[in-house]
């Protein structure tokens, strides 16, 4: 069950820091891991969307995985992005690659191919049969071009014993509530959007895989924990403090917004790999204004 892997509360979708020459800044990566663990991140999601994974080589992915796992040193669980639109390729990776130190894998709904619901079901069933690792589904139709319905999610949850949760980023609260209402006892829902984490927890979700948590792990983990404890009044107050930032961080795409904040904090260079580019000056000035109002130095 997901509780046994520790994937509850605020997980952070870890960014990939780059130097000015676009090589990976591994020293900054280590700083990020230390910062997040020190400031109450419950687990780290490595090589997901926020890591700009499509722009990384296979060797770079292996090095990032190795460094993060060694630095974490079992202090918190590690959720590793292992997804794609080639089912056979994922299966081969699961069989030949080293997953030592990985507590679970996050696997996105196949993108670009636009499979049917039956195709999505068979994709995940095949992956489930190829590994003993716990699997977290990832539904993000805004990126993949296809929505995994509640019916398909629940079918997978019932039929695949090691599929333990879904990171839901469809933006459809009704769909998410349907999953929460009808899911098996050993399957859970994790918010895939910072902005709906609070309301989704009130419906029965167990936490979030967060982007904003890269910059504000202490504050956002506190909000998540308060909500999970049923202290909705104090959790809502923190949620409302960040409402404007939730939108601003994604105006120019992810992770442009959060990287701009981290750069001013001195954590990383404000560098992304094409086709992604840094956030616009106008957007960052709006972010800075909100941060100043929150008395957050930036």
Question: Would you write up a description of this structure?
Answer:
By secondary structure, the protein is α/β, with parallel strands linked by helices. The protein has one domain: TIM Barrel. Helices cover 46% and strands 12% of the residues. An eight-stranded parallel sheet has the order 7-6-5-4-3-2-1-8. Helix 5 links the parallel strand 4 and strand 5. The mean pLDDT is 95.
Name of the CATH superfamily: Aldolase class I
β-strand amount: 5-15%
CATH architecture: Alpha-Beta Barrel
Q: Describe the main β-sheet briefly.
A: 8 strands, parallel
Question: What's the order of the H and E elements?
Answer: HEHEHEHEHEHHEHEHEHHHHH
Strand order of the largest sheet: 7-6-5-4-3-2-1-8
Rg computed from alpha carbons, rounded to a whole number of angstroms: 18 Å
| Average pLDDT metric | 95
Report the helical percentage: 40-55%
Instruction: Please mark out the parts with pLDDT under 50 across 5 or more consecutive residues, or reply none.
Output: none
How many structural units, i.e. domains? 1
CATH class descriptor name: Alpha Beta
Calculate the terminal CA-CA distance, rounded to whole Å. Answer: 40 Å
According to CATH, the fold-level topology is TIM Barrel
In DSSP terms (H or I, runs of 4 or more residues), the helix count works out at 14
What is the approximate shape?
globular
Number of strands: 8
